[in-house]
Amino acid sequence: MNISLYDLSVWVLPLIIAITFHEAAHGFVAHALGDNTAFDRGRVSFNPLVHIDPFGTLILPAMLLLAHSPFLFGYAKPVPVNFRALRNPRIDMVWVALAGPATNIALALAAALAFHILGFLPANAAQWVADNLKNTLLINVVLAVFNMLPIPPLDGGRVAVGLLPRALGASLARLEPFGMLILIGILILLPLAGSQFGLNLDIISTILQTMTGYVIQLLLVVTGNA
């Protein structure tokens, strides 16, 4: 299974930009709201080198490309945030969490708008730009939708912790150390178990695909592409 430089340029480049801007947005908003942890560690930056996780940002996406996976996924080093240092920890945590997905939606919107410039480009350049823009739209919407699942430590989980009544929020927050295990369970293990009994238990992936489709269609309509 060969992978070309063209494949890398139209998939990995949009992925690195999406992840970098997502993490940087968390850092910028946290810094603006009183927490200097990320700033002091040099993470309030759009320099991808400070956010790249060697496995999550480079090796994992490359492996998925080599395997001709139907989806591309990756992650960066999480931006450190000391929520107690925020001026209003409970509500500011919500703004910090929302910053990442909101930035991804903004990037997706910009990509959708940029489709209108393709007609002004030379034919040989237009295809490469078009593929980058399509993947930028897809990757950013997938990251935004996935991260808004209400499971800590995903952004949606932290939003839920901040907005729920304190007792419920505290109970949800206690799941954070087990959040990735829960995600692996519902996204991978549960569907595998269901397939052994002829059951489709891949409910979360179906919901994510449906929501991603709706958001992409909305962005295309808003930007005059549909």
From TrEMBL:
Superkingdom to which the source organism belongs: Bacteria
GO term, biological process aspect, one: proteolysis
Names of the cofactor(s): Zn(2+)
Principal location class: membrane
Membrane topology, as annotated: Multi-pass membrane protein
One GO cellular component, as annotated: plasma membrane
GO molecular function: metal ion binding; metallopeptidase activity
InterPro entries per UniProt: Metallopeptidase_M50B (IPR052348), Peptidase_M50 (IPR008915), Rip2-like (IPR044537)
Subcellular compartments: Cell membrane
Keyword Protease: yes
TM stretches of this protein: 12-34, 54-73, 94-117, 178-197
This protein's UniProt keywords: Cell membrane, Hydrolase, Membrane, Metal-binding, Metalloprotease, Protease, Transmembrane, Transmembrane helix, Zinc
Domain Peptidase M50: 125-184
Family of this protein: Belongs to the peptidase M50B family.
Designated name of the protein: Zn-dependent protease (Includes SpoIVFB)
Biological source species: Bradyrhizobium erythrophlei
Organism phylogeny: Bacteria, Pseudomonadati, Pseudomonadota, Alphaproteobacteria, Hyphomicrobiales
